[in-house]
Amino acid sequence: MPTLYLIDGSALAYRSHYAFSRTPLTSPSGQPTGATFGVALFVNSLTSRPDLTHAVCIFDAKGPTFRHEIYPEYKATRQKMPSELADQLPGMKEMIKAMGIPTLEKRGFEADDLIGTIAIRAAAEGFDVFIVSGDKDFGQLVSSKIHLLIPKGKGEGLEIFDEAAVEAKWGVPPEKIIDFMGLKGDSSDNVPGVPIVGDKTAAQLINQFGSLDEVLSKAEEVTKPALRRNLIDYAEQARLSRRLVTIDTSVPVSMTSDEFTFRIDDTEKLADIYREYGFHSLLAKLDAEQVEDSSDLKYKAVTTEEELDTLIDTMKKVDLLSVDLETTSTDPMQAEIVGFSFSFNNGEGFYIPACLGYFPGLEGETGRLGQDITAETRWVLNKLRPLYENSTIRKCGQNLKYDALVLHCHGIKLKNIASDSMVASYVLDPTRRQHNIDSLALEHLNFKKIPTSDLIGTGKKQISMADVPLEKITPYACEDADIARRLCILFQKQLHEGELANLYRDLELPLIPVLMEMEYNGVALNVELLESMSVEMGEKLDGLTEEIYRLAGTQFNINSTKQLQHILFDKLQLKPVKKTKTGYSTDVEVLEKLASQDPLPKTLLEYRQLQKLKSTYVDSLPKMINPVTGRVHTSFNQVVAATGRLSSSDPNLQNIPIRTEIGGAIRRAFIPEKQSQVLLSADYSQIELRIVAHISGDEELIAAFHEGRDVHASTAARIMNVPVEMVTPEMRRSAKEINFGVIYGMGDWGLSERLGIPVNVAADFRKQYFETYPGVRAYMDGIIEQARRENLVTTMMGRRRFLPEIDSTNRNIREFAERTAINTPIQGSAADMIKMAMVRIHERIKELPAKMILQVHDELVFEVEREAIDEVKTAVKEEMENAMKLKVPVVVDLGVGENWLEAH
């Protein structure tokens, strides 16, 4: 028996919009896609139901209906559709059609009436009908052939309502739903009903008297005075309400049941839509055909010297050569090379094994960092060296910093990096969550790559890439090189179209070898100092533990959230600040607020910070030392932060506290490797404030920097109306919070929280601030307006950040986007500045006895031979201060020391 699903499209769109309103999604072009994605997920789940043979998705048409004619206030209380949802509707409908379900709407009629008409007609034709909607009005249509499917909350599926279920839910059978609704009304549609009549009363009255007409005609028999009076006074309103909720089942609908047959006619079109919206998971599920048949791909293993020589001769003549390595580890400092892959034409790739015994060799040897290198690997490396180090051959690939570092560890320099698909993807959309080659291939090329797990497995059964047979690794490796090249060519065009080519070419690409070399350089550690710190911190933690037990009045598991909740809120009766799914929160923000009520929260904060720093740095850093180099090699992440900032991992150096005693002690453990060396720290002074002065053009702020004033003291004097010499340290601290708070879009409440002052005082501070620096206020207003107009903001070098949330009807989301719009050009320009400085410094000091080893926030750290320190200081200062020209002086603070703390 055929089954027809009638989907209430308007209700589904609203439901999906609000489901994703707190975590808004955007397409690669920056357009809102949350509602569309929610609809796609729902329709996908619906079409997977085995009984679905026919379906149609029905939307409300714009304009009034007959209900507005008989009751002008109908739906008058509804808010206007959010713009970010309205903008998605046309594309959403096209997507639904591509998913195999036709859409329908008709001017002058609501979706309810179209659904009702089609449901009655289809049931008469022998269909089983399912109405997919949460609207209780549809209960009036339920019969032996028509069912109601109501979506449950949180993606828990659909609840089926037959006649018995309708009566169990609302207390009346389907045929009496309109009488029931006539009495109780419907606030969502502004259907008035009878005042003080709710669900329970309406059902009782209908069951007692039989129908709405009987209820109204026998209203005098109702015993409750207020209810009796309202039934008499509002009888006509009840009849009007019944008419408003009655679904019209005689709408002229020209589409026939055959036109509702579910089928996907054009899988490629649906795949294109998913790619356009960035729906990677749905694209993968669609399992669309690849760009070309695998039989069309020319992937070949090179296993003889003659083949290798021929290939090398060919590659020497190509314009763009894609390179990739297969290795045994994701850590480039530990990785052994398994093979080399290359591509220089679409659909072609060549794989050269390095350790499978195909090439002649003598005895093995050890690489620079202790990797086992067979003579065969060294022989192949030496054959390929002229290619890698040829500066006239343009190289491309995916995440080339990794490949360049592995090659560097084997004594080979990868020269002329012309394109990197991962970095290009990041420049095009820095807010994108992933830039891995699998997702990029699927989205941009409709190519489903071979998963790495297909070769090496997962978990305990995972094998080494070195153990994968040649016939399996060859297509995988060739695919990597081939796809990376195609992506690079595609992205290059998009970068030019988006006016991002200069940023990519002049900044991000030259930065790759800089970061690679910094990772290779690493940094030396004073292990003895860290070990003694660990002992001291352990003893202090023991003391804090005893103090916590004393303040709590009992022993408990300090690291157990549940037990801590009991101590704080049950035993000590402290006032909770906020609640989570598992009870009252005990996070840092909460403990800071509770500290004014009791000494225990303050002690807990000290314990947590000490414990985290001990485990994250003091105990972990020695374990991260490379056994061969004796140094720690952090990874610098180029494609993570949406602002353009670099980050680091393994270890994350960004999170070492700057101004605390413990943070300073950890920095003391970072040292030069040799007695003949020192560390040089170069730190931009108030760079973000200087950029604010530049881009806002505020005359007072510009003058303050040109005159070399203490900007924080100057701000304090102006907003607090005192002479500069009368500014106290506390006043300066408050002004500093305001200066930097403005950069992050901090409002009155946020400032009051930071300074511990009343909101009205904070508001007055901000008012005085903007009167002092009117150009800053104008910048903030202007950049928010620009973001609303263009849905993006840019840095001084043209880096883009999409902000579709700027038009959100959700206040929290919209205000976050506004703060981001204010901050991104500032923080992003600072990021661009230090990156440009790094590129130039790297080139300038390459012949000097100095190494750039760390980048943290606005600071660069170098390991320098003592006799060259003055020359290096001059070079670093000049390049940092002139990386980007501002309307104010750029100041770099230099420090030299026997460790990072001394230098900083």
UniProtKB/TrEMBL annotation:
<dbReference type="Pfam" id="PF01367">
    <property type="entry name" value="5_3_exonuc"/>
</dbReference>
<keyword id="KW-0548">Nucleotidyltransferase</keyword>
<keyword id="KW-0269">Exonuclease</keyword>
<dbReference type="Pfam" id="PF01612">
    <property type="entry name" value="DNA_pol_A_exo1"/>
</dbReference>
<keyword id="KW-0540">Nuclease</keyword>
<protein>
    <recommendedName>
        <fullName>DNA polymerase I</fullName>
        <ecNumber>2.7.7.7</ecNumber>
    </recommendedName>
</protein>
<dbReference type="InterPro" id="IPR018320">
    <property type="entry name" value="DNA_polymerase_1"/>
</dbReference>
<feature type="domain" description="3'-5' exonuclease">
    <location>
        <begin position="299"/>
        <end position="496"/>
    </location>
</feature>
<dbReference type="Pfam" id="PF02739">
    <property type="entry name" value="5_3_exonuc_N"/>
</dbReference>
<dbReference type="GO" id="GO:0008409">
    <property type="term" value="F:5'-3' exonuclease activity"/>
</dbReference>
<dbReference type="GO" id="GO:0006261">
    <property type="term" value="P:DNA-templated DNA replication"/>
</dbReference>
<feature type="domain" description="DNA-directed DNA polymerase family A palm">
    <location>
        <begin position="663"/>
        <end position="868"/>
    </location>
</feature>
<keyword id="KW-0808">Transferase</keyword>
<feature type="domain" description="5'-3' exonuclease">
    <location>
        <begin position="1"/>
        <end position="263"/>
    </location>
</feature>
<dbReference type="InterPro" id="IPR008918">
    <property type="entry name" value="HhH2"/>
</dbReference>
<dbReference type="InterPro" id="IPR036397">
    <property type="entry name" value="RNaseH_sf"/>
</dbReference>
<keyword id="KW-0234">DNA repair</keyword>
<keyword id="KW-0238">DNA-binding</keyword>
<dbReference type="InterPro" id="IPR002421">
    <property type="entry name" value="5-3_exonuclease"/>
</dbReference>
<keyword id="KW-0378">Hydrolase</keyword>
<keyword id="KW-0227">DNA damage</keyword>
<dbReference type="GO" id="GO:0003887">
    <property type="term" value="F:DNA-directed DNA polymerase activity"/>
</dbReference>
<dbReference type="Pfam" id="PF00476">
    <property type="entry name" value="DNA_pol_A"/>
</dbReference>
<dbReference type="InterPro" id="IPR020045">
    <property type="entry name" value="DNA_polI_H3TH"/>
</dbReference>
<dbReference type="InterPro" id="IPR002562">
    <property type="entry name" value="3'-5'_exonuclease_dom"/>
</dbReference>
<keyword id="KW-0235">DNA replication</keyword>
<dbReference type="InterPro" id="IPR001098">
    <property type="entry name" value="DNA-dir_DNA_pol_A_palm_dom"/>
</dbReference>
<dbReference type="InterPro" id="IPR002298">
    <property type="entry name" value="DNA_polymerase_A"/>
</dbReference>
<keyword id="KW-0239">DNA-directed DNA polymerase</keyword>
<dbReference type="InterPro" id="IPR020046">
    <property type="entry name" value="5-3_exonucl_a-hlix_arch_N"/>
</dbReference>
<dbReference type="InterPro" id="IPR029060">
    <property type="entry name" value="PIN-like_dom_sf"/>
</dbReference>
<dbReference type="InterPro" id="IPR019760">
    <property type="entry name" value="DNA-dir_DNA_pol_A_CS"/>
</dbReference>
<dbReference type="GO" id="GO:0003677">
    <property type="term" value="F:DNA binding"/>
</dbReference>
<comment type="similarity">
    <text>Belongs to the DNA polymerase type-A family.</text>
</comment>
<dbReference type="GO" id="GO:0008408">
    <property type="term" value="F:3'-5' exonuclease activity"/>
</dbReference>
<comment type="function">
    <text>In addition to polymerase activity, this DNA polymerase exhibits 3'-5' and 5'-3' exonuclease activity.</text>
</comment>
<dbReference type="InterPro" id="IPR043502">
    <property type="entry name" value="DNA/RNA_pol_sf"/>
</dbReference>
<dbReference type="InterPro" id="IPR036279">
    <property type="entry name" value="5-3_exonuclease_C_sf"/>
</dbReference>
<dbReference type="GO" id="GO:0006302">
    <property type="term" value="P:double-strand break repair"/>
</dbReference>
<dbReference type="InterPro" id="IPR012337">
    <property type="entry name" value="RNaseH-like_sf"/>
</dbReference>
